[in-house]
Amino acid sequence: MTRKSFLRGMAAAGAAPLLPVPAAAASAGRSDFTLLRDGTAVDIVVDAADDPAVLRAAGDLQADVERVGGVRPKLLHTVPRRAGLLVLVGTIGASPVIDRLVAQRRLDVSRVKGRWEASVTQVVDRPLPGVGRALVIAGSDRRGTVYGVYDTSERIGVSPWYWWADVPVSRRDTVTVPAGPLVRPEPAVRYRGIFINDEQNLTTWSRRTQEPDKNIGPKTYERVFELLLRLKANYLWPAMHPYSDFFNKHRENPELAQRFGIVVGSSHPEAMLRNGVHEWEPWAAEHRAEDGTLPLYDYTVNPSVISGYWRARARQNGAYESSWTIGMRGLHDSALETRYATTVPEKVAVMNDIIADQRRILAEEVGPAAEPQIFIPYKEVLELYNAGVQVPEDVTLIWPDDNHGNMRQLPNEAERSRPGGNGIYYHLSYWGRPRSYLWLDTTQLSKVWQELRRVHEHQVDRMWIFNVGDIKSIETGLSFCMDMAWDVDRLGPGDVEDFLVEWTGRQFGRRYGAEIAAIRTEYYRLAAQRRPEFIDRAVFSTVHHGDEAGLRVTAYEELLDRVRRLGAKLPEAYRDAYYELVEYPVHGAWLMNLKYYWADRNALAVRQGRGAGTNRFADLAEAAHAEEQEITRRYNTRIAGGKWDGIVNPYPSQIPKAPGRPAVTRLPRQETSGLGLASEGNETGTDIPLSFSSYTRDRRFVDVFNTGFLPLEWRAEASVPWVRLSATGGELTDQVRVWAEIDWPRVPEGTHRPTLTFSGAGRSIQVPLRVVDDGERARRRARGFVEAHGYVSIDAAHFDRAVPRGGARWRIVRGLGRGAGAVEAVPTTAPPVAEDLATRSPELRYRVRFTTAGTFPVTVFRLPSLDERGKRRLAVALGDQPPTVLSGQAVATGNRGDAWARNVEEGIEKLTARVTVSAPGEHVLRVFMVDPGIAVDQIVIDTGGVAGGYLAPPESYRRT
Q1: Which residues form the Gylcosyl hydrolase 115 C-terminal domain (predicted)?
Q2: pLDDT exceeds 60 at position 22
């Protein structure tokens, strides 16, 4: 699907908010509806008896028209006797005006009436006596109407992020919308919402700028509720940490949620809308044992006290549209405590008793309105659920990911048929093992797309909850998730960047959408290699593959340069939003990587015996850290006039921090000098030759450095004329990197072993080279991937052929993984294929030209995915050799330092088999699906030359 057809399709189907109407649309035709012209705005009518959520949203439309046109429409509750134009807003069954139009067949609600949160927007001529024309916004229920209203706001150019990300509203003298009809069918997912979590920065900001006497209170939640509705969400788990006020502390909070139409629930450790962090201790103090001791939050010890604690909240909040979390965990996200139940079967029995008690309380205190009820098998509770916990059929099962974007398990056939349905709890931000990521929006959107598609294919469509941390910095990811939750079929495996084009175009103007989308796609790709929050010492290699760490920071630097060039073109009004949504994330991620790169170079310099260069790298590392702190100060104190004071902080005091200032080593100055060398592939010295191939036509580096602090003169020369050097000498104070390249037209065919000679300070050092030239004719005729440098490296999406079988196939997901895309075995509901793979399993085929024979390891870089009730397998074979089945990590252990932890830190899992190359020449590498939903990113065959490195070696040559 092309981008144009993608956008046309969305517009035609009404599947997504339309792009803002450009100023050129001022001369709109009769088919458009004018909301404002010549300083006059069209009145908005909403029946006073409609739901408060609808009345309030109509007021927002009134404000939005003023934001665009500078004139505020009147908000009326009765239809005027005469009006040329009107906007009529109402809910079917709650608005007499809307019901009258439906009864007269003037308004087609056939795809809306009786549906969940559906709406239609349509222009009706002469809808009522005395009214010439009306823009009618009608919803199937209160939120359907609200979403129809906010659709109109977005269509005239008011972004859902106008306040939360300072996206400006373009002013126009004439404001129109297409006549429609625009039908928004009911959403793909019934409840769609967020969990504000690990929210210290949000709390700090709220106290500083919104409510000095509260730690997230009604004024802040009012902004949150409006954002959710503008994003077509309807559900919230509120902030719950010790430094935040618990939601029900301020009784205005649940009342506000009811008035906005937001369903409020609670997270996995907060059973029955109770915040254990704040509320249990006072309750326990009021319900001491006879001996005066405080009761424990342990149902096997104090069931009656805990039951009363839950009952009080059910009684207090029973009148609101709420979601009730049943089951139990420990206080503040800790494991379930059961002193008198030590075995798994005993704990299962206790959990069953807890659920029965909670259900009884809800039946007695809330009645039939106590829905939805949800059960979240999170961490240790998942083990108990799989061991036999009986969850009532009408309760929604909320399946958690592993906190890092990989679903732990999905419902089986029996669970899919339950009346209560299924949902997910998915993390875009996380505090916990093995590492936390709380600072930036770094979860690759194509990864989110892949997992959410898999989720929906398993009929998980009742509730999707996303952990968004502090909300700020997750703007793009949150918008993407809410769009998918509304229409999961809207995007295909190649459309994620098209979403970014459309979304960023809506925030910054269409002319900039494609470039910003490309920037964000590259930003996510680099984060998929390693989140900036996961950066540490000695992760990326500084000596292999052309200095892979250096290439990474260069990629970030080039990306930041693109960001700045584009930012300079934007109108001034967009600068704050651009900084928040585009520039700060890229700049911050670059600096986080940069400071650790220089720190690694500093440590390497110590090992290499460098002098002045050691201190130079220390200076650069500390300068990068200081710059990172400065851009954060800018965000908090200068952007939007200081509006976001405290909202962004990589180093909060009470939750896990991003990597801070790396330790560096400094040397005392010594009045000496000396020549030192370290060539690529060598931490110290030059023992490993620099490898060159006529296929890959690489360049290689030699670091020339001073072992002291006094300047010295140096020079370099090659033993053959066809080796080119980027520098051949000069004065050396600390270090210089010299690049060597081959002038291939001048090289005789064959294998050559020339040398480079570096001299200075009375010393001469040789660097060996190995140059293999198979000739230009061989390069032009090569088919498939060609072995060179002792390996074959393949991007999995570059297959020669994909063979579907048994109703399953491999497909490319663009923007997924560490490169341009990965391949995924679909459908994700396909049955596993464990036997006769060559005839029953879908396969990928890759042509490979080997220059050596032998038995070699082949490593498949699999993107992590889990199935705690199944397996995660694929198979590889060379030619007709029997396939070798490789089993990936299927279980999230929650530990540090094990296979699961390594997989989520690195974003891939390396699965290795061995293949035998009987003779040099062309062969076919085959990859088979065993379990569905497997995604493969890269494949590396080590024929003896794969050196240390975090990433796969650069992709091998293939003629394209």
Answers
A1: 784-955
A2: no
- In this predicted structure, the answer to whether residue 391 has a pLDDT above a threshold of 50 is yes
Cα 119 from Cα 184, distance rounded (Å)? 5
Angle between helices 344-365 and 303-317 (to 10 degrees): 40
Rounded-to-integer distance, Cα 445 and Cα 898, Å? 26
Torsion angles phi and psi, residue 569, rounded to 5: -85, -20
Given a cut of 70, whether residue 2 has pLDDT beyond it is no
Q: Are 191 and 372 in contact (CB under 8 A)?
A: yes
CA-only gyration radius of the chain, Å: 31
Question: What SS3 string covers 288-310?
Answer: CCCCCCCCCCCCCCCHHHHHHHH
The two three-digit tokens of residue 496, written as one number:
């994620």
**Beta bridge partner(s), residue 854:** 917
Q: 692 and 700 in contact (C-beta within 8 Å)? A: yes
User: What pLDDT does 180 receive?
Assistant: 78
The whole-angstrom separation of Cα 627 and Cα 601 is 19
Residue-by-residue DSSP string for 644-685? TTTS--SS-SSSPPPP-PPP-------S---EEEEETT-SSB
| Closest listed residue to residue 755, CA positions, set 797, 716, 703 | 716
Distance CA 888, CA 168 (A): 47
Give residue-wise pLDDT tens across range 426-464.
999 999 999 999 999 999 999 999 999 999 999 999 999
Q: Say how far apart CA 949 and CA 88 lie, in whole Å.
A: 63
Q: Smallest Cα–Cα separation from 168: which of 77, 79, 67?
A: 67
Q: C-alpha distances in angstroms, 627 versus 589, 622, 931?
A: 12, 9, 47
Q: Does the pLDDT of residue 108 top 60, yes or no? A: yes
H-helix segments, 871-944: 899-906
